[in-house]
Amino acid sequence: MSTAFVLNGKPTTLDADPAMPLLWAVREVAGLTGTKFGCGMAQCGACTVQLDGKAVRSCVTPLSVVAGRQVTTIEGLQSKPAKAVQTAWVELQVPQCGYCQSGQIMSAAALLETNSAPSDADIDSAMSGNICRCGTYIRIRAAIHAAAHSLKV
Amino acid sequence: MSTHTLAPPPSTRRSFLKSAGGAAAIALTIGFEWTDTSRRALAAGPATPLPGTTFAPNAFLRIGADNSVTVIAKHVEMGQGAYTGIATVVAEELDADWSLIRVESAPADAKRYANLAFGTIQGTGGSSAMANSWNQLRDAGGKARLMLLSAAAKEWQVPVTELTVERGIVYHAGKKRQATFGALVKTASSLPVPDTVTLKDPKDFKLIGHTAPRVDASAKSNGTAVFTLDVALPGMLVALLQRPPLFGATVKSFDATAAGAVPGVVKVVQVPGGIAVVAKSFWAAKLGRDALKIEWDDTKAEKRSSAAIMEEYRRLADQPALTARTDGDAGQAIKTASKKISASYEFPYLAHAPMEPLDAVVKLTPNSCEIWAGDQFQTMDQANAAHTAGLDPQQVSIHTLYAGGSFGRRANTRSDYIVEAVSIAKAFGAEGTPIKLQWTREDDIHGGLYRPMYFHKLEAGLDDKGTLTGWRHVIVGQSIMAGTSFAGMIKDGIDPTSVEGAANIAYAIPNVKVELATTKTGVPILWWRVVGSSHTAFAVESFVDEAAHAAGADPFAFRRNMLEHEPRMKAVLELAAEKAGWNTPLPPGHGRGIAVAEAFKTFVAQVAEVSVGKDGQIKVERVVCAVDCGTPINPDIIAAQMEGGIGFGLGAALYSEITLKEGRVEQDNFNGYRVLRINEMPKVEVHIVPSTEPPTGVGEPGVAPVGPAVANAIFAATGKRMHVLPFAKGGAA
Description:
The complex is a heterodimer. By secondary structure, chain A is α+β, with helices and mostly antiparallel strands. In chain A, 38% of the residues lie in helices and 15% in strands.
């Protein structure tokens, strides 16, 4: 079975079990390993990708669901808000172990793409599905504010 | 594992730390030449030196003709900033250009890369990475710098004393001549390594204390950082292991017919740990494992509930126990005190739950075993892998990759996940097929090696002036070191990790008795971030707070008055109180609590501020943290470790617990095993005490005081004491 969709802007056909979670299809079939496995049941957000611009948990998204749609992974981030998020992540030295950060950045980018000046409450609501066991939350919050600010100037 | 020949560590972490400043810490391997290019590619980005164009004066440093400076890290980078800290120390003495620094992981080789805090064992733990490497790395950088200077002096026919170095460039007086490190590689390589070198005066430090940016921040912000999960080797297969549902159960029989029929499943093999499904993809292995039919033999399994085990611990706390410390006569002092108080504290099993579920890649042949892992205990893992494979340790090589968190889980003397991976590769045929063992989150939560469950019982007596005169502390729980290669550190039946933070209580109390009842259960246990102080600091700092209340004293002043002889501890306590505005009024419904702890010779005090909502919901608003970790190598990483440690410790204090019902773990994933999320993270301020003492660690100590500081703040706000962890269990979070 093959599934055709647009992956990071490129038309892509993956030959895999359509029930296979998008996470594993992207990682093991397409070879893009920036998206991480953390829980397998949409509890931690490490696997967050964007589906038609919205942050989704790829570990519970069957490959068949993305047929004909646009999938963006950390490797394919291009939008201005997304780039601002990544820049702020480095400037504020957010990552520690780094394992959850692809997912954090995907969620943060999706937030800034729809809300250019998020409040702390907006950040809580958009980011509370992303666990960081290293506890980088303070810097994640600060980096999202910094990225939003950088887009204004 | 009792059959391999690991020597027990010759000294405790603490006794090492006392001597860390001595010359014994220097052990360079001269003439080391790096040849393994695959490790470079996997571990820390590209490194490009060609053979013969590299200056490698010692085991920790390689300078390429392209001016690249590669620092070889003997410690795993698991988030704590070890790579950056190690590189900072080398680059400082070398006067290297920070922008040209690369870090790659050392191979498993205890002769060159032992953790000097552990003696002869290569590994990372006990917040020892910077403390044990400090002299070693300064020496490595300083000697390399001197050799580069000597090379320039030789080439230019000028005295070394007329040369200076700035950011990787050697200058002759007046800067008439200059050469990059890369241009001097060839000549420097021909020179002898000097016996001694004069290290920098700390006042001349340009990187140490000045926040070099993390070497891994970019790769960890664009998805290119390589973790074990990301290793993809030609022909590699993925294995999932079905472990027994009860600790101590074994396979009675199994039927792999359905599993074997799943498309993509290559083989189903039985190993000592259970039944493994080896497949072409994670998904196929997962479907295959789900289809396994296994009958378990649970005759030797632990079948008790954690509540029943805790009930036994409560009883044991009233029985005679072993003595870990005696000063004066605590029993008599309490008996004759004008005021007596007592309390107990209960701590659950805790999973480490690093974001990267455990994983390891093994390529096994009849005479070699190659391992890729976020490896934290290379020497143990090498020995245990060799034992499992039937090889010599020298035949086992380890590529240490970034670890997606650990918190102690990968520092495992049993090498559980490594041994599983090797045993699967062996059962598969040991013919060189790389196999990646992948744990799921459920495997992680169910998998044991938890922070042990503990019961603490405390009694104290105060005189009529409100001064503590007697203190008795009984701890009940499993020994982390018993039955491991660290067992040699157990003295007179006392596992130091069970009582650290309690037996060495810093407060000046004339009569102190600390006792330990070590238990045995079938639940496998392990150290967890900040080890003993993950529970002892809570018990001590909560009970001191109860004593302050009984004395009618201010909790800060009460502590400070008992710390006159502990200047560093007193200083962090005072700094935290001052920065938190300890004596300033709070809004109604808010409360402030304070706690202080020493762990691994780092001193941390925290003041927590909580609010109580109309529904009784507790919110931790703010934590002010003061830390003294000796010479601050990288203040921003120190701050990050305190922030993160506070988040980690707070999640455990508020929410996390592993419970067993009839031997079965009741939590499965992050839905049941709750950890802190961003909306629960307080504001954190970190204040670092300036110091020229030798550096100590920051990965763990920040975890210790947050639980009691918050508990004491809840008491200040509500009058309710937290005696059972997590607080959510008592309805307070």
